Amino acid sequence: MNDRSDNTDPMARTSGSHSEITGPRLREAAQRLFARHGYASVTMRQIAAEVGVQVGALYNYIPDKQGLLADLMRAHLEELLAAWAAEPRGEGPLGALEAFTRFHIRFHLERPDAVFIAYMELRNLAPENFAGIEALRKRYETELEDILRAGQAAGVFDLPDTKLATLAVIAMLTGVTTWYRDAGRLSRERVAGLYWDMVRKAVAA
């Protein structure tokens, strides 16, 4: 069986692109286009044009557009989980919840395009890809739910349903990416502080 990359026309690459056009650059371009226009509206030809190659050259780096979408979501969620794992935690459930809140705001505000795709393009994933991405999402949700359960057990939080509270808190925190602008009147740190106050009240801490 021939490797697909062996069949790619050498002329498909623009001058100097062999060393310059890499997987990360391709993914950055696709992420930008998906966030701006929506996955369904973006063609492989548009992605190729964005990075300066012909369409055939893309398949040296990705299997297809669906695989590219799944890869973008997977990379975002894996980075999210790794970053949270390395994040310092506060003391007790209340400190952990504050750490989670501030971390979530900070991490997501730095990656608005990746966040938009990870949440808004789930509907465009094939079933097998959806299952993998959903598993990663649930791992992150479980991190928060474990904090809420610990706080509930310790009598620090008053919550009738930790699962529902988990989904509500994450939805509220993630929503900041839809409206926040660096040129606005609130700094990122101030926004994180205000959201922490709202989260604390939401769990009746």
TrEMBL record:
Residues 43-62 bind DNA. Residues 20-80 form the HTH tetR-type domain. It comes from the Bacteria. InterPro entries: Homeodomain-like_sf (IPR009057), HTH-type_TetR-like_transc_reg (IPR050109), HTH_TetR (IPR001647), KstR2_TetR_C (IPR041490), Tet_transcr_reg_TetR-rel_C_sf (IPR036271). Residues 1-22 are annotated as: Disordered. Keywords: DNA-binding, Transcription, Transcription regulation. It holds the Pfam family TetR_N. One of its GO terms (molecular function) is transcription cis-regulatory region binding. Coiled coil: none annotated. The keyword Transferase does not apply. The keyword Endoplasmic reticulum does not apply. PROSITE patterns: HTH_TETR_2 (PS50977). This is TetR family transcriptional regulator.
